[in-house]
Structure to design on (288 residues):
DNA sequence: TAACAATAGTTGCATATGCAAATATACACT
DNA sequence: AGTGTATATTTGCATATGCAACTATTGTTA
């Protein structure tokens, strides 16, 4: 396809930004000082506690420095803690703290509500189609 | 729709990030020190030279501080210049410089190539559908 | 006209990202 | 064992964004 796919980047970018903004503000309104990026990490750890930073990097599709600094912030806020790994002293395993677990529990309904809101008026078919297309774009941009 | 729309935010975010990365690297490989965000502004100015910063903010869906700083960078690199407005001394009109114009001309084919690449294997119908859905998400997140 | 509100832009602070370079540790191979 | 390579994480630098606060100027209106 040519010439028609004019402003995909623009629509992608502004929508992503707005979605993140909504999540961030909802967290803030609920009394939680957490960014969407931090939420993603907490959410992953909630289903797989004790991942290493490089595991987290892979699962969140971020690079090592980004994860390193997000973990810094989450640790500073006492949502997670780094535990050294016995067999490999280069690594840390990252665990949710009590407070981290509570926070994920508290925010999960809010996140579901926002997800539903973002998808209002759209169908299951739309979802399938959208995922197919966006992941095709992702693949198209992944090759050299 | 419920419960199914699980990871839209994640797919949006990682795809947007990858698209921007591809554009940035392509610019760099072509010898241009320009970010995708800076490109968007140059591209808008190329079709409407002399917009004010608040016009640019509106058209690019960014806030005033973001535009202010992007213009700072573009001006420092001599791609644009701020011209004071006679009737309203609060305002600047932003103009592409010679170099800015040359740069847009040089990068346009590259941008088109990348747009085509991102849309490879997808149809005009996919495009319509995708735009409908992503803009619906945008609207859903725009209301209070 | 004086006071107040609105508009245009800038600046400071916190966060996130990409990249390159650095450190520390583990692994592999001769 | 010793050298070189790979892996895990951190740090520095540049850029972008959201938000709040600030300055300067313009508009409104009592």
């Amino acid at each position: 396809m040519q010439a028609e796919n004019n402003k995909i980047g623009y629509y992608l970018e502004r929508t992503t930004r707005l979605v993140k903004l909504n999540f961030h503000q909802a967290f803030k309104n609920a009394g939680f000082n957490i960014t969407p990026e931090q939420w993603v990490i907490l959410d992953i750890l909630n289903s797989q506690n004790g991942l290493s930073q490089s595991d987290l990097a892979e699962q969140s599709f971020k690079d090592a420095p980004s994860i390193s600094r997000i973990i810094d912030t989450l640790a500073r806020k006492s949502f997670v803690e780094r535990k050294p790994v016995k067999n490999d002293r280069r690594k840390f395993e990252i665990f949710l703290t009590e407070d981290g677990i509570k926070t994920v529990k508290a925010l999960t309904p809010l996140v579901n509500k926002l997800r539903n809101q973002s998808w209002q008026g759209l169908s299951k078919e739309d979802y399938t189609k959208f995922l197919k297309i966006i992941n095709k774009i992702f693949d198209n941009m992944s090759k050299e």
Observations:
- Chain A touches chain B through 50 residues (CB under 8 Å).
